[in-house]
Amino acid sequence: MSENYHIAEILKKLKEYKRKYYVNKLIKGLLISLAIFLFVLITASWLEYKLQMSSISRTIVFIVVGITLIYFVTRYIFLPIYHLLTNGKALSDKQAALEIGKYFPEIDDKLLNIIQLKELSSRQNSLIAASIIQKSEKISILNFKDSISLKSTNASYLPYVAIPAIIISLMLMFAPYMITEGSYRIIKFNEDFVPKAPFKFSIHNEELKAFKGENFTIRAELTGEELPAELFIQKEEVKQKFEKLSNSRFQFNLKNLQKDMKFQLEAAGFKSAEYELKVFEKPRIQNMNISLDYPDYVGTSSERIINSGNLIIPEGTKAEWLIQSASSDRITIELLDDSLSFEKVNENTFRLQKNLTQSGYYKLHLFNSEANYNEIIDYSVEVIKDKYPDITLNPINDSIYFSQVAIAGEISDDYGFSRLQLIYTKRKGNNIVGTGKIPLSFNTQVRNQKYFKVWKVDSLLNEEGTVLDYYVQVADNDGINGAKISKSSTYQFKLPDEAKIQKEIENTSQSAENQLDRNIKASERTNQKLEELERILKGKRNLNWEDKKLLEEILKEQERRKKELEKIKRELEKNQAKRDRFNKNDPDLREKSEQLESLMEEMLKDENEELMEKIKSLLEEQNQSDEFRESVEDLKKQEKNKLKEMERMMELFKRMEIQYDMKQVGESLKELEKEQKELAEENQSKDHNKSEELNDPNSDQNQSDNEQFSSEEEKQKALDEQKRVNEEFEKIQEDLREIEKRNQSLKQPNQLKDTKEQETEIDLQQQNSLQKIQENNKSGASEQQKKSAEEMKKMSEMLSSMQMGMEMEMLQENIDDLKDIVDNLLKLSFRQEELMNNFKQVNPSDPRFITLSEKQLAMQDDAKIIEDSLTTLAQRVFQLESFITKEMDKMNEAMQSSIEALRERDNGIAIGEQQFAMTSMNNLALMLDDVLEQMQMQMQSSMGMGQQSQGNEQTPSLSEMQKSLNQKTQELNEGQKQGRQFSEKLGELAGEQAKIRKMMEELEKQLGKEGQEGGEENGGAPGDISEEMEKIEEDLVNKRLDRRLIERQQQIVTRLLESEKAREEQEEKDERKGETATEYERERIPNAFEEYIKEKEKEIEQLRNVPPNFSPYYKNEINKYYNRLKSKENLLR
């Protein structure tokens, strides 16, 4: 073997020796260090436990113990470990050889020599190598590491470890606090420890955590054999006493905490360990914004609510919470059964969006994980559900024409409407024959509104027995759940039966007649009171209390009577309207009704209102002067005139109603004749041969025997139908008797023919018909029914002929009487003119003055005769208007004043009054001549003349007629201007001018207004032209014929031409627009109904204003307010 091999083996064994050497050192170091540590622990802990050293002393002990432990650990543990890791570099090979040589005597210094020879082998290779090999062979059999015994070497150190370990074990078993407390206080050398008390301090709070600004209660307890009576808290050098709850339990309240706080408990001179109360910022909301995005259909813009969480919102609102919080790391919301977390926008801002559809409460949870705290804030959300719309319908039926319905009502909703329509069903019996929907206008922006529409139903109710069922339906604009629909109550509209309408007309007529009669009697009483008052005024200078009361009663009575007359007028208008709608009204009766209404209007004019106010004023001032007496006298005259007018109106009304009833009886008889004829045809044999045999008198008996009713039911039906016809005829007979009775009540009864013979014959045939039916003789009954129908036809023709003849006879009589009156007026006028001229030529002292005065007195008597004749005629002639009576009064007053002046021999005043009387006579003659012409035209029309329609007649225009009159006036002006013939010519011209004026006024009446549109630009209004014509009439009557009058006539022609041109242009516009309407159509709306329509349309227009965009809550409150108002209104109704 080589030298190197032996050296390598030896070095390897040396290395193993070194490793075991340091392992032995490490075990020895561990035992020594552990023994030292246990000894120091026992000593230091025991000393601290016994001595309870101060912090400084414990610091010194801690340092000494620390240095000692560090030294031993470094010396005996870390260094051996280091040498092990560095392959024993601290122990050289030579040192190791010496140590090994000491253990193995046979080696001695051989190992050292080998190591030394190795260092020299590089210089003496052969000799050294040989020496090394020789020595190596001697020691190669030895294991160097066996020189170290780990067990024997370290066993001596075990007692040093075992003894303190046993001591510590015993201490831990019997007095552990000596070790634990002493060592703990030495380790916590920088803390102060109080001397241990004979009792124990304990805090019962789960956590010493509180929130800033809040209070915190410390709950403490002392445990031990001997307990002190008091417990204190030591904080920030302040000592405070605990509140004692029991012998061992105490509490102390800390208020308004702002920061962390350290404290100790102290009792009987002993202190507890130091405690620390942590103070945290409480989670809170610094700012909260809730953005509310309302549904579009609500019509309200988005809204933001700041720092308020309670919500009142409509259903479907989208809410977005944006919360800025302090000391919160998480926020959640507990909404109904749902829990949602807010999105964290940044460190302190959180956001959440949610569609709200239900009401309830919600909670915001603010979390602080450091403090382990959950702040809960309660809020509420009230979701206002979209309610069903409310609707009311209060229709007003046209109870006169039955042609339209005023659809009026109210609708309300919380947010608005999408549809409003009238829905109707047309049925006949139980069969539906048609349906329809009519949209109604409404304002989409108004939540509470009224609706209105005039629904024309005359085209729907075109058959008898047709019924309309209708209601109004409204839909709201709910954009979340879809439109909700509500409908009103269902109403019904139908035409009344003919018998009911006729009964209503009769009742209204009778009521009007009774009211008019009461007013006549009341007027008679008023006249008596006025005469009494006039007598009192003549005998007294001053009125006493009773006299004043009498006058006040008279004035009040006049006011009451005026209201009653207005009511009568309205009733008559309604009656006439119903006749126009449901009866075939005679044009003559229609014209008479209009004339009667005109008379009523004239009578209702408040001409005496100013006079009554004047009397009241004088009465209050207690002024019973001549002016007061004159006013009372004027009131008396006016009351007399009104009495005459009412008496005349009563007479004319009775005549018109008799004429109407006669016409209705004739129509009823025609209808009954038709029904009787139909019954006869139903009972007639179906066999033509047998039917022909009925014409043979000899075959009656055979036919009667052969033809019978097929069944008992058919026989009973025929019997019932015939009885009904008999009853209808009895009703007609009763109506005829009533007409005869009412005719006799007239001051001048009509000449009615006796119809009892025809009635008896019809009764007989009807009774025979019943008998034949009861005998089951069908053909015989048919024959008798035919005869009855023929007799009815004869009677109907007789009534029609009688009525026409009666009217013609009366009309002719009236014309003759009116002619006589006009002639007498003209004669009286000429006599007055001649007498006036004679008075101009005599003096009051002249003997002829008395003779002339007697003639004037005689003329007054003649005028009285004319007045009586005219009054009598006026009670039969409708065309005589009230201003004729007034003109007659003017004439009488002028003549009376003239006579009084003549008695005073005041010739000037007498002549002036005579002039006034003559003017009134001429005016009356002109007016009556105009009426006479109308009556003559009516006579011609009744006799079959003038039947051509007005549209085909080539009548001259007003301007042409005025031109012709102007020519005549100019010719008369150029001729002789004196004499009786001249006066007659002037009268004729004045009559023609009056005729043109009347036509002008009639045109004005037809146009339905006082002036034509654009009249001022086109010749002036017709009313202005009419006034100018009337002035010309007066000038002609008073013989004021000159050039200026002719020029004024020419101006009238020019204005008439312009007016006619403007009217033609307007008619062309109307034709282009297609807005032509018949007179009936224009009058189809009754006055009261039209006023109601205008009032409703005005209300609807006022509600067009859109209210401001309130929030849903306030809109809801407004709706509640409207509903309360509506409820109160219904209660008041």
From TrEMBL:
The chain crosses the membrane at residues 21-47, 59-85, 157-179. Keywords: Membrane, Transmembrane, Transmembrane helix. Residues 669-728, 741-760, 770-793, 940-981, 1008-1028, 1056-1084 are annotated as: Disordered. Residues 696-709, 940-951 have a biased composition (Low complexity). Residues 770-781, 952-981 have a biased composition (Polar residues). Residues 669-693, 712-728, 784-793, 1057-1084 have a biased composition (Basic and acidic residues). This is Chromosome segregation ATPase-like protein. The lineage of its organism: Bacteria, Pseudomonadati, Bacteroidota, Cytophagia, Cytophagales.
